[in-house]
Amino acid sequence: MKNVTDSFVSLGHWPSAGGFGFNTDILATNPINLSVVLGVLIFFGKGVLNTIRNSEELREGAIEQLEKARARLRKVEMEADQYRVNGYSEIEREKLNLINSTYNTLEQLENYKNETIHFEQQRAINQVRQRVLQQALQGALGTINSCLNKELHLRTISANIGMFGSMKEIRNN
Fold it and tell me: Which pLDDT does position 39 carry in this prediction?
């Protein structure tokens, strides 16, 4: 095992002509390193650049869609405000119509009530009049019957027949 370890240690001591080693000359190694780095960047960077370009295009499309969505949102908000204002106006208009309709209905009911009261008063007055007249007639008939005897009764009938006869003659002429 000592031989294997010695062979690794001795690798670092090989002369540069036949082995592998690090070149510390900056002027000789810099263009090589730059070309390797540029090659790696170009090889792997193409995909990254395409991804960045696609991302930029997608970002611009997303911004455009966002602006369109904001414009639509503003339009919808304005329409909603208009509907809200119109809705409130319609509610106020319906409320006033309902109040006016209720007022008119109450006024009609008041008129019907007054007409009914007036009708009932007239009916009660007429009933009282009929009873008073009926009682007056009964009282007059009672007075006439008590004061009138047969002879006076026959004379009154004859006078009335005479009056009807003269009325008949006047009509015929």
Answer: 83
